[in-house]
C-alpha cells in the first residue's frame, strides 16, 4: 500500500487486530480480554459464525462430542445434546461473544495486511481504504473461507443444476432426481445420505482413498477413544487399534469402493491435514445400493457425466460439489520471510 496514503489515513488500534469472527476469532478475543488485552475483531460478513450460519446444510451437527468442541472459558449448556446441531452451535457462539464482551466489526473486509518494519507494526488495509495499525495480528479466518469449485470439462453445457455444498440446505428439493455428488469427505457422505432420505438417487464420486471410521464404538466417541489412547501409546499403534475396531464395526470398506490409505487416519491427519470421515449411516445405504459409489468425473455432458470407471455416459438431474473450501489468507496477508517480520508478531489459525 502507498506509504503516504497509509500514514495519512492510518489509525492505531490498541492491543490486537483479529481477522475473522468465527470460533477461533471469538476464542482468541475472549482469551485476550481475560488477560486485559483489548482486541478489534474484523469480520467481512454481516454476522459472526457466518460459515456455520449460512453455508452449512440443515442436518449438520457436530461430528465430535461437545466437550471436544467447546471454546475456552465457557462450556456448552448442560442441556445441549452430545452432538449439538448447527443452530445450537450458532446460538452457543452468540452467547459466547456476549459473555466475553466481544463485539466484532461487521462488514470489515481486509484487502491487505503487511508488516511495516519502520513502525514495528502491522498495517491492515480495509476495503474503502481505511488502514489500521496494530502491534499484533491474529489470522482467524480458518481453512473454509472460499468454496473450492473445480472446473470439469464440459461443466458449462450441463443442463441441470450445479451447486456447491455451501448452497445446499436439504435434499427435499431433489426428491426423485438422480444427483451426482462430487466428493466423499464428511460433507459428501452426509449430503448423499440426506438426499437418499428425501427420495433422491445419489451417486457419490470417490476419486481418492479415504478413511471411514465409526462415529462411536460401543457408545463412546471414536475420537475420544483415540485421544485417550494417544496419551499412552504412539500414533501408529493407536491407528492400528482404531482401524481394527473400524473393520469389525463397518466391515471391509474397500468392497464398497472406499479404499483406505496406507497411512493410518491419525498419522495422515497430522501429516497432510486430511480428516477421516465419521460414518453417520451412509455406509448402510451404500451397502443396500441406495447410494452408488462411482469413479472420478472425466467429463460433464449436457445431460450428465462420463466417469473414469465407465465408458458410457450417465445421466443426472443435478450435480452437487462436495469439494471443500480453501483459505483466502494468501490473497491478502503479505509476509516476506526475508524482511524484519518478528516471529511473534502474527499468529495464524
Automatic annotation (TrEMBL):
Keyword Chaperone: no
EC number(s) per entry: 1.-.-.-
Pfam families cross-referenced by the UniProt entry: FMO-like
A molecular-function term among this protein's GO annotations: indole-3-pyruvate monooxygenase activity
Gene3D superfamilies: FAD/NAD(P)-binding domain (3.50.50.60)
UniProt-listed PROSITE patterns: PROKAR_LIPOPROTEIN
Catalysed reaction equations from the record: indole-3-pyruvate + NADPH + O2 + H(+) = (indol-3-yl)acetate + CO2 + NADP(+) + H2O
GO biological process: auxin biosynthetic process
Top class in the EC scheme: oxidoreductase
Cofactor section: FAD
Keywords: FAD, Flavoprotein, Monooxygenase, Oxidoreductase
InterPro entries per UniProt: Auxin_biosynth/cation_transpt, FAD/NAD-bd_sf, Flavin_mOase, Flavin_mOase-like
Similarity comment: family membership: Belongs to the FMO family.
Name of the molecule in the record: Flavin-containing monooxygenase
Organism the protein comes from: Aegilops tauschii subsp. strangulata
Taxonomic placement: Eukaryota, Viridiplantae, Streptophyta, Embryophyta, Tracheophyta
Amino acid at each position: 500500500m502507498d506509504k503516504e496514503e497509509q500514514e495519512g489515513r492510518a489509525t492505531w488500534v490498541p492491543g490486537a487486530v483479529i481477522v475473522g469472527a468465527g470460533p477461533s476469532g471469538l476464542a482468541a478475543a475472549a482469551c485476550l480480554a481475560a488477560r486485559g488485552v483489548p482486541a478489534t475483531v474484523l469480520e467481512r460478513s454481516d454476522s459472526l459464525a457466518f460459515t456455520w450460519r449460512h453455508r452449512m446444510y440443515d442436518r449438520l451437527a457436530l461430528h465430535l462430542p461437545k466437550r471436544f468442541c467447546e471454546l475456552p472459558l465457557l462450556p456448552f449448556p448442560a442441556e445441549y445434546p452430545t452432538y449439538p446441531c448447527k443452530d445450537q452451535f450458532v446460538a452457543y457462539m452468540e452467547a459466547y461473544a456476549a459473555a466475553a464482551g466481544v463485539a466484532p466489526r461487521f462488514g470489515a473486509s481486509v484487502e491487505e495486511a503487511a508488516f511495516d518494519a519502520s513502525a514495528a507494526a502491522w498495517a491492515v488495509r480495509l476495503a474503502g481504504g481505511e488502514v489500521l495499525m496494530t502491534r499484533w495480528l491474529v489470522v482467524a479466518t480458518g481453512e473454509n473461507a472460499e468454496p473450492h469449485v473445480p472446473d470439469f470439462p464440459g461443466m458449462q453445457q450441463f443442463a441441470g443444476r450445479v451447486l456447491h455444498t455451501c448452497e445446499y440446505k436439504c435434499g427435499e428439493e431433489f426428491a426423485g432426481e438422480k444427483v451426482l455428488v462430487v466428493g466423499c469427505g464428511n460433507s459428501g457422505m452426509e449430503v448423499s445420505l440426506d438426499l437418499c432420505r428425501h427420495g433422491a438417487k445419489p451417486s457419490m464420486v470417490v476419486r481418492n482413498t479415504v478413511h471411514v471410521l465409526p462415529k462411536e464404538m460401543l457408545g463412546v466417541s471414536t475420537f475420544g477413544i483415540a485421544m485417550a489412547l494417544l496419551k499412552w501409546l504412539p500414533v501408529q499403534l493407536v491407528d492400528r487399534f482404531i482401524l481394527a475396531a473400524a473393520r469389525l464395526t463397518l466391515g471391509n470398506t474397500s468392497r464398497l469402493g472406499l479404499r483406505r490409505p496406507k497411512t493410518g487416519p491419525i498419522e495422515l491427519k497430522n501429516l497432510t491435514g486430511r480428516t477421516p470421515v465419521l460414518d453417520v449411516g451412509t455406509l448402510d445405504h451404500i451397502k443396500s445400493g441406495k447410494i452408488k459409489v462411482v469413479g472420478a468425473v472425466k467429463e460433464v455432458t449436457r445431460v450428465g457425466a462420463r466417469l473414469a470407471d465407465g465408458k458410457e455416459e450417465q445421466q443426472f438431474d443435478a450435480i452437487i460439489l462436495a469439494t471443500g473450501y480453501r483459505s483466502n489468507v494468501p490473497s491478502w496477508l503479505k509476509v516476506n520471510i526475508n524482511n524484519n517480520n518478528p516471529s511473534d508478531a502474527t499468529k495464524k489459525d
